[in-house]
C-alpha cells in the first residue's frame, strides 16, 4: 500500500539515529499533504515539502494555539505538554501583541549580543572539555559538553543558578512529553517549575541583576509597555526549556554527523573557515529533529491543491522539508560548503526561533573548541549503535560515546 492510501503513525518510527525515515522522500513526491495518527490517537495532517512548510509557517491563519476543543492532542494525556498547556496561551500568539513580546525579549538574542557573549561561551566549553579529558576516554559527549553548555549559558542569561540544571532538565522533558510521562508526573513537574520560576521572578523584583528577567521586570507592567508578571514568568520557563533542550541535542547530533563520516571532520580540521557553513548544513541535514511544529487552522485553506477544513491540526516537518531536492541540490548529501542554505531548522516567518543567533553561536563555539582541543576525536561505537531519544517532542541522541 502506498503512503497516500494509509494513515501513518506519527512520529514515523525510525531506528537509525542519524538517517531520515524512508517515508519522507515518498511523502514529498506522492503525498505531500498526508494523514497521520498522533500518539494520542487523534488525526493530523503532515506536510513534508519545503514550499508548503514555509508557506504554513508564515501564514497567520495557522495558529499555535492547540487548546481549541477540536485541535488534535499530541499525547494521550489531556495535558498536551508544551503545545497545548495553559502556558502556551499566556505569551501572545499573533498580531501586534506578539511582535511587542518579541521586541522586548529579542533584544537579548541579537547577533551583536551573541558576539559579546562568545568569549564567555568559549571559556565554558574549554572548562567542560578539560573535565572530559581529565575523566578520560571513552566519554559521553552529550553529558559532558552538549547538555551542560547551553544550560550554563541560558541560566546565566536568566540569572538562574546553574546548580539547578538537573531539575530544569526533568521539568523541560515533562513539558516536551509525547509518550514518556503520565499526567500525574507532568502536572506535578509543571507545578514545581511554575513555583520555582515564580519565586525566582519575585527575587529578581526585590534584587535586580544584569539579566534578561531583571530587564523585563524593569520595563514595567503592560500599562508601561512591558509584560505582566505572569508573562515574564512564562517567558522565563519557555526560554529555559527552548534555550537548553534543543541546542543540547543539536550539539550531540552535529558532532555525530561529522564523525559518522570521518572525512567531514578531517575537512574541518584542514579548513576552520568552514565551521559556519558546517553548522548550517548540520542544522539542515538533521534527520532526527523531533516532532516538527504543529499548527491549528482557524479557517479553511488550500495547501498543495488539498483543501484543509477549519479545525485541522497541521504538522510541519521542517526536517523533511530540509531534504527537498527541489530546493537543495543533492539534498541527501552533507555538503559542508553549501551556500546559500535556506534551511527551515529555525522555522520561518513571524514565529521563527527567537534564539537562533544563540544556538548558532553555541554550535560554532563547540566546533571551534573541539577541533582545537580534540582533533583526534572519533565515535567510540559504530554509528548503527547510536540510539535516539524516544517519547519527547525534541529529537536527540541518548548518549554520544566518543574517544580521542
UniProtKB/TrEMBL annotation:
InterPro entries: Cyt_P450 (IPR001128), Cyt_P450_B (IPR002397), Cyt_P450_sf (IPR036396). Its cofactor is heme. It comes from the Bacteria. The keyword Metal-binding applies. It holds the Pfam family p450. One of its GO terms (molecular function) is oxidoreductase activity, acting on paired donors, with incorporation or reduction of molecular oxygen. Keywords: Heme, Iron, Metal-binding, Monooxygenase, Oxidoreductase. Belongs to the cytochrome P450 family. This is Cytochrome P450. It comes from Thermostaphylospora chromogena.
Amino acid at each position: 500500500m502506498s503512503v497516500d492510501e494509509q494513515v501513518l503513525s506519527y512520529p514515523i518510527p525510525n531506528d537509525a539515529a542519524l538517517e531520515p525515515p524512508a517515508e519522507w522522500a515518498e511523502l514529498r513526491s506522492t503525498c505531500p499533504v498526508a494523514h497521520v495518527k498522533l500518539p494520542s490517537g487523534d488525526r493530523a495532517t503532515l506536510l513534508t515539502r519545503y514550499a508548503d512548510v514555509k508557506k504554513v509557517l508564515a501564514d497567520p491563519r495557522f495558529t499555535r494555539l492547540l487548546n481549541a476543543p477540536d485541535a488534535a492532542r499530541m499525547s494521550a494525556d489531556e495535558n498536551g505538554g508544551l503545545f497545548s498547556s495553559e502556558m502556551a496561551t499566556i505569551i501572545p500568539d499573533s498580531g501586534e501583541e506578539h511582535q511587542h513580546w518579541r521586541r522586548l525579549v529579542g533584544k537579548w538574542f541579537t547577533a551583536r549580543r551573541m558576539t559579546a557573549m562568545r568569549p564567555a561561551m568559549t571559556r565554558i566549553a574549554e572548562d567542560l572539555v578539560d573535565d572530559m579529558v581529565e575523566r578520560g576516554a571513552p566519554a559521553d559527549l552529550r553529558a559532558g559538553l552538549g547538555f551542560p553548555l547551553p544550560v550554563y549559558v541560558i541560566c546565566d542569561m536568566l540569572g538562574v543558578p546553574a546548580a539547578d540544571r538537573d531539575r530544569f532538565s526533568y521539568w523541560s522533558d515533562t513539558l516536551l512529553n509525547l509518550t514518556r510521562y503520565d499526567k500525574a508526573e507532568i502536572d506535578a513537574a509543571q507545578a514545581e517549575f511554575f513555583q520555582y520560576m515564580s519565586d525566582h521572578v519575585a527575587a529578581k523584583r526585590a534584587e535586580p541583576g544584569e539579566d534578561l528577567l531583571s530587564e523585563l521586570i524593569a520595563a514595567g507592567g503592560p500599562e508601561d509597555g512591558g509584560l505582566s508578571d505572569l508573562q515574564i514568568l512564562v517567558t522565563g520557563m519557555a526560554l529555559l526549556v527552548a534555550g537548553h533542550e534543543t541546542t543540547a541535542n543539536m550539539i550531540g547530533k552535529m558532532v555525530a554527523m561529522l564523525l559518522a563520516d570521518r572525512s567531514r571532520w578531517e575537512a574541518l580540521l584542514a579548513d576552520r573557515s568552514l565551521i559556519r557553513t558546517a553548522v548550517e548544513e548540520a542544522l539542515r541535514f538533521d534527520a532526527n529533529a523531533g516532532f516538527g511544529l504543529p499548527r491549528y487552522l482557524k479557517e479553511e485553506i488550500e495547501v498543495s491543491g488539498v483543501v484543509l477544513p477549519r479545525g485541522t491540526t497541521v504538522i510541519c516537518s521542517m526536517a523533511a522539508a530540509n531534504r527537498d531536492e527541489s530546493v537543495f541540490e543533492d539534498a541527501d548529501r552533507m555538503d559542508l560548503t553549501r551556500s546559500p542554505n535556506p534551511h527551515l531548522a529555525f522555522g520561518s516567518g513571524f514565529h521563527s526561533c527567537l534564539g537562533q543567533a544563540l544556538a548558532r553561536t553555541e554550535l560554532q563555539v563547540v566546533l571551534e573548541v573541539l577541533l582545537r582541543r580534540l582533533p583526534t576525536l572519533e565515535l567510540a561505537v559504530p554509528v548503527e549503535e547510536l540510539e535516539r531519544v524516544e517519547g519527547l517532542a525534541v529529537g536527540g541522541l541518548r548518549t554520544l560515546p566518543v574517544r580521542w
